[in-house]
Write a structure and sequence with these properties.
By secondary structure, this protein is an alpha/beta fold. Helices cover 46% and strands 14% of the residues. The protein has helices at residues 2-32, 34-40, 45-59, 123-126, 136-143, 159-168, 185-189, 219-224, 231-270, 294-305, 315-323, 336-352; strands at residues 68-71, 75-78, 85-87, 91-93, 115-120, 147-151, 177-182, 201-205, 208-212, 274-279, 310-313. The strands form 4 sheets. A 5-stranded parallel beta sheet has the order 6-5-7-10-11, sandwiched between helices. A two-stranded antiparallel sheet has the order 1-2. It is elongated, with a radius of gyration of 23 Å. The N and C termini lie far apart (91 Å). 36% of the residues are buried.
């Protein structure tokens, strides 16, 4: 009886192993054949990771852009001391010794006679597709010569990386005003451990934020054992991503984004600065069509619940310009014309609401 029972258990164990090997083999085929992989890939951690691995194998690329470098706590950041690099179809990019966009250096101790304004955000704040002086940060500096504009924007960042960036570098510069350039896509990035490269992520434990994925593994460490990583996990993650669906992912993104942005506003206040969140429209919003979307409604609701956060939206000014006959690029990032409108919207707010003098 015991022998028969043992054989049954052995058969069951072998059958489970067979199924696992079968699923792993099928998963490797699905993700190994480009045409099949393209059809089932989703923008989850593993989908972004597979894309990065392919780029790394093909070109040795560590991070998405040549002006970026690996960062142990944020995944990636802008390289320091870049001088007149040609990017974005012959645009010009500089960074200072801290890695901030632009060549201007800023001492940690601010000039008491100037208002120090710090910008945090993703590629729209960084100024992707435009030169330093064509970004809305550069335009603000031109419009407010008596202020110091520090651009801490980094392409691909979620709110999690922005908060870490402020903690590690931003607050050391004693800003008077911190402006978050809010782009709706940043919410989904707060759910990821991998995007342009591996990144940290906050999780909610009760009402508290808990940082995971830090320190970030180096690219060579990431590649060393990638061949042995079970593709079954990728397959299960893809299924989970599809089952949760857009509504479920939105709900999760809103919860964690609310917690991160709430923490950011509190820390900005504790640092003695004024928190300002600026809603920056993209894509179809730039055509001046339709009512507020779900993203802007969420943003407005957040602002109502956080009275100490100063909020503005650049969308009304875009709508006004469209009504006057202007047209704006609706794919990818703004060109200089879009940055001009954003700089004007933020500039008006600084003068009218915070009484910053040009």
């Amino acid at each position: 009886m015991a022998v028969a029972r043992g054989r049954q258990l052995l058969f069951a164990a072998l059958y489970v192993v067979f199924l696992l090997v079968l699923v792993e083999g099928v998963s490797r085929i699905l993700f190994g054949v480009q045409r099949l992989s393209d059809r089932i890939s989703v923008q989850d951690d593993y989908g972004w990771r597979r894309t990065w691995v392919k780029r790394h194998k093909a070109a040795g690329e560590q991070i998405y852009f040549a002006f970026d470098t690996f960062d142990l706590t944020k995944g990636w950041r802008s390289r320091v001391n870049i001088r007149n690099m040609k990017v974005f179809n012959n645009k010009v990019l500089n960074t200072n010794s801290a890695g901030f966009r632009g060549s201007r250096e800023f001492p940690l101790q601010k000039d008491s006679g100037k208002t120090r304004i710090m910008l945090v955000g993703d590629s729209f704040t960084f100024g992707e597709t435009v030169s330093d002086d064509e970004s809305f940060a550069g335009l603000l500096q031109r419009n407010f010569p008596n202020a110091e504009i520090l651009n801490l924007g980094v392409h691909g960042y979620g709110h999690d990386q922005m908060l870490i960036h402020l903690r590690e570098q931003g607050f050391a510069y004693h800003p008077d005003i911190v402006i978050l350039g809010y782009i709706p896509n940043d919410q989904s990035r707060n759910l990821l451990n991998f995007r342009d490269y591996a990144k940290p992520r906050f999780e909610l434990e009760g009402d508290s934020l808990h940082l995971t994925g830090s320190p970030v593994p180096a690219p060579e460490q990431m590649m060393r054992w990638d061949w042995a990583r079970p593709r079954t996990i990728d397959f299960l993650s893809t299924i989970r991503h599809m089952v949760i669906g857009p509504a479920g992912r939105r709900a999760r993104g809103e919860r964690i984004s609310d917690a991160i942005l709430s923490e950011m506003s509190l820390e900005v206040e504790k640092a003695g600065a004024v928190p300002v969140f600026a809603y920056l429209p993209t894509l179809k919003e730039l055509a001046g069509k339709g009512p507020l979307n779900d993203d802007e409604r969420w943003f407005n609701d957040f602002c109502k619940r956080h009275a100490k956060v100063h909020c503005l939206s650049a969308r009304p000014l875009f709508d006004q310009r469209v009504a006057e006959g202007a047209t704006f690029k609706q794919k990818g990032h703004w060109d200089e014309a879009g940055n001009v409108v954003v700089a004007e919207a933020i500039g008006r707010f600084l003068v009218d609401s915070l009484h910053v003098q040009p």
